Amino acid sequence: MEEKTRTSYTEYKPEEISEFKIKDEKYSVIGKSVPKMDGRVKVTGQAKYTGDLKFPNMLVGKILHSPYAHAKILSIDTSAAEKLPGVKAVITHKDVPSLKYGISPARWDENIFCIDKVRYVGDKVAAVAAIDEDTVYKALKLIKVEYEELPAVFDPIEAMKEGAPQVHDEYPGNINTEIHQNFGDVEQAFKDAYYVRTDRFVGNRTYHAPIEPHSAISIWEDGKLTVYCSTQSPHYFQYYIAREFGMKMGDVRVLKTFVGGGFGGKLEPTALEFAGAVLARMTGRPVKMFYDRAEMFTHNRGRHKVVMEITTGVDKNGKILGVHANFVQDGGAYTSLGIATAYYAGAMLTLTYDFVNYKFDMTRVYTNLPACGAQRGHGAPQPRYAFECHLDHVAEHLGIDPIELRLRNARRPNTITPNEFGVQSCEMKACLEKAREISGWQDKKGKLPKGRGIGIATGSFVTGAGYPIYRTDLPHASAMIKVHEDGTAATLYTGATDIGQGSDTILCQMAAEAMGFTYDNMKIVTADTETTPHDFGAYASRQTLMSGSAVKQAGEEVKAQVLEMASVLMEVDVDNLDCRDAVVYCKSNPEIRKTFGEVARTFFVKRGPLVGRGVYAPPKLGGKFKGAPVGTSPAYSFAAQISEVEIDEETGEINVKEVWDVHDCGMVINPALLHAQVHGALYMGMGETVWEEVVFDNKGKLLNGNLGEYRMPTSLDMPKIVSELVESSEPAGPWGVKEVGEGATIPTMGCFSNAIYDAMGVRVSSLPLSYEKVWRALKEKREKEGIQK
Amino acid sequence: MYLPDFEYYAPTSLWEACGLLAQFGPRVKVIAGGTDVLPKMKQDILAPEVLVSLKNLSQLTDIFYKKGKGMVIGARATHNNLVNSPALQEKYLSICEAAHHMANNQIRNTGTVGGNIVNAVPSADLPPILIALGAVVKLFGTDGERTVLLEEFFTGPGKTVLKQNEILTEIVIPDQSFTGSTYIKFGLRRSGALAVVGVAVAVSMQGDICKEARIVLGAVAPVPMRAKKAEELLKGKAVTQELLEEIGVCAAGESKPISDIRGSAEYRKDMVRVFTKRALSKAIKEGHC
Ligand SMILES: Cc1cc2nc3c(=O)[nH]c(=O)nc-3n(C[C@H](O)[C@H](O)[C@H](O)COP(=O)(O)OP(=O)(O)OC[C@H]3O[C@@H](n4cnc5c(N)ncnc54)[C@H](O)[C@@H]3O)c2cc1C
Q1: Do A281 and A231 contact (CB within 8 A), yes or no?
Q2: Overall domain count for chain A
Q3: B92-124 per-position pLDDT tens digit
Q4: Which of A94, A419, B44, B100 has its CA 20 to 30 A from that of A194?
Q5: CB of A521 closer than 8 Å to CB of A618
């Protein structure tokens, strides 16, 4: 018979455990591409998303949206809808709290339903709950709303002008947020500079377009509200839902189901949760609310359009002396999470290069378009695009190779940015050098045939925000591990939120590593505000470091208890014991051993539940100036990306040949998932650079709220991707980890734009770099050259 | 996005189907693959009270060559039926290739050639190549059967000569003397994008002399249009790169595009120039229909 190699301790009988080979690698569970926790259930269709759930007597609810971009509501008549058989409730602003919500008290500007006027096409006016979808849609058509159309404004620059239509009376001049930060002496730096240059770029409105549409099921039982929803942060939803209805947080339970992607768009509660809760209370029945694809686009909360003016002064050698960023963002009709976006846009520009003088001016402006919010990279990718394109122009003027210019300015470890972010691990230089090497840059730059180009950009991102998403002193993450009574499995309980990125998997790897247990026998319960300990959720690329820290601590607490119990059972000094791969052994004589299971079971019999707990809060970070907290983080990832493109000079069509990404993201827990994040981020970044843009007509009506005309790339459009790492370890992270999820989107727009510029010899300075824009720029260039001849 | 109520029939004979169309008049719509009808109903653009499905008329999916008649394509053949048809692959590979670049695989499994034609959308991918190859369509109605040159089938965006009680049953491509044909679709991504410009050409080459040519443009006029001046310009001449460039310019001049979300009129005109030139060189070089 063929000898099968047994890899897990569970394949050994207790009496055979001495034969089990304990690994001699540094780690036994982390650093390995173990299969995803939820891979099987997703592939087989067993995984249930909120939209799949059914409860007895469940009603279906939908929201009535405004057809006008800006209009007074004169009257709402719901009587015909109410009379339709099957309709159980119709609600308007009269039936819901009038308390406004948003990200921070000074910017609470959104109501569950509009009271006096609507502010964009798609604004929320009323909602219906009925016995089925068919009836709901019919009822929506029966609600009669009388509007008086008002002049509307769709451009942020226009919106700031005197006499422009006012979106909110409370915010004169349509100014939602104004930021002025000044570090060092930029004016002096420009005076001292050998070369000062200003460029202007425009970033496009894009949308996250997660594959799963938003949905929420609200259920009331005995004064307690339970909400199942597609969310990135059950805790934040719980907080805002409780606040909106004046409830105790303990009376609101929010549970995440499987989530089909968020990318920032499912971070804050929507009318689906608010209106759903009211409809469920009124009818006494569970109510399922959902957006269809077009409604997702109107709800939006995606990337802001930004007009970016950027000025840099350098010395003869290209050393950056000072930078001034002057931006205007189109925020749409409400704040959403946009005030953070506005701060992030400037804050993150100081990370990859070392300079001391920095000035940041920003105005976030209201317009009569859907509200913008957080989207992968939160405010940072477009400014980074502008900065990286701008730096290529600086390099060109000075006659310095773009990588060389970046190397001369690259941030070093253990430095502080002008806006007071402390950076510990930082392999920016190594990333640039490796990217240069693996892409064959030196043989390509300036040497590619006509129509081909190569470009570089850098990026960096927070590994979790230094301060919570709303003002609170709660720790950022916590976790609990309970070992099963018979010791054969362990369950990790955490509020951390897996939205597809794989946090369940890596957190279980971390738990098993810390406990000395095995990944295969880990179970996980997450993102339920009632059963799992608090965690802020999936945003700001925080979970690997922050949730991971709490999980590591919980695992170590379990391990300590196991070793202590084993010390009694085995009569070995506890300091002489260790546990790996679920085998407890004597360090001085590894032949003396017991299974983790046996020890854990005895623990339960003698002492009760074997539980470990962990909690994480970052140290106090950042400076004292206004807005100082935004951008603070215990650690920052760094990356360099190079792309090579080919342009059809007659049509403007862009063919991406290959992309190289080199990342410094500290210790890697699961290489396969890490590279998947890089691929996914590149996919999004590529789409936003060339293909994606949300487009409106001159009345503010969305023209491409579907996946046919909102052109995300397809698999056929994807280039070959080389994703590589540099050696790095972060002191602030458990086992040295840092983020990768959002950071990999940051350099993409800049690196593509630079490659396209290299291929064309002329800059298209607004995103997306659509084929037609490229075609037009090339045509104009030819015409100009013709005239010069 | 919800399908409103409708009555549904799936007749088993053409007679029965046409009878239903006559009976319900303007309240009825034929449904083949439904990839156009159903989204429009969901978006409130169409609201037929009755749908008559062609799904039980399986004879309408056949694709075969008949001597003396030509290549026969059943109206209900799906795009992937076209892609995978051995008969088409042998005689009209350009049609297989045109179908292969449509939509995405799911839609190609469902959408039909008949639907693509009757829909009469200016950007539809199949009409240009079929017109270039001189296709005729067979229309079957309660008043009998007639054939119409596909080129004369379209009367405006969404408008055709098809009568209320008629069904498009087959497309016939007569035997011909063209030595090469091709269709190039220019879309804004590699899959799932509608044509910004589509150019189909058919050429009859003798050595490097072009004896006969057809150039059909999609998405640049209310209906698929022939660039007849450009065709004339090519006829009887030795093909050179300069000539092709000139023909491209001529075809661009003939086109009458509008500006929309996918491209400006100016861009489209220039793409007609580029793709006419490229399509002609491809058809001449590859030398198959
Ligand atoms: C995601 C997506 C992508 C698409 N991409 C493309 C593309 O790349 N290129 C392209 O050209 N099109 C595209 N389309 C449009 C559409 O799929 C095609 O036009 C398709 O060929 C329509 O065929 P169908 O059988 O689905 O039509 P249906 O929706 O069934 O019918 C369309 C119209 O034709 C009528 N009709 C259908 N068959 C007959 C018949 N035999 N006799 C009389 N009337 C009939 C119907 O009454 C209706 O008015 C796309 C559609 C979608 C949803």
Answers
A1: no
A2: 3
A3: 999 999 999 999 999 999 999 999 999 999 999
A4: A419
A5: no
How much distance in Å is there from the Cα of A288 to the middle of ligand 1?
Answer: 33
Compute φ and ψ for A44, nearest 5 degrees.
-85, -5
Using CA coordinates, name the residue in chain B closest to A651.
B271
Q: Using CB atoms within 10 Å of the CB of residue B252, give its burial: 0 to 12 exposed, 13 to 18 middle, 19+ buried.
A: buried
**H or E element in which residue B169 lies:** strand B167-173
> Which of B44, B106, B185, B270 to mutate: most A Cβ within 10 Å?
B270
Q: Which fold has domain B180-286?
A: Enolase-like; domain 1 (3.30.390)
Query: What CA–CA distance (Å, rounded) separates B198 from A715?
Result: 23
Domain residue ranges in chain B: 7-53, 58-173, 180-286
Choose one of B14, B28, B30 to mutate for the ligand 1 pocket test, by most ligand atoms within 8 angstroms of C-beta: B30
Min Cα separation A59/chain B (Å): 16
| Pair A99, A241 in one domain | yes
For residue A63, the cross-strand partners are A127
The secondary element (H helix, E strand) that includes residue A578 is: strand A577-580
- Which chain A residues are Cβ-neighbours of B263 within 8 angstroms? 772
Q: A594-616, pLDDT tens digit by residue? A: 999 999 999 999 999 999 999 99
Task: Tell whether domain B58-173 is in CATH 3.30.465.10.
Answer: yes
Report ipTM for this prediction. Answer: 0.96
CA-based max dimension of chain B:
60
The predicted model scores a pTM of: 0.96
Q: Are residues A500 and A542 in the same domain?
A: yes
Alpha helices per DSSP H over A516-618:
548-570, 596-607
**B198 forms bridges with which residues in the sheet?**
B185, B218
Question: Domain with A266 in it: what CATH number?
Answer: 3.90.1170.50
- H/E stretch holding A280: helix A271-283
Question: Which residue of B2, B192, B264 is in closest CB contact with A137?
Answer: B2
User: Of A329, A318, A324, which is closest to residue A391 (Cα–Cα)?
Assistant: A318
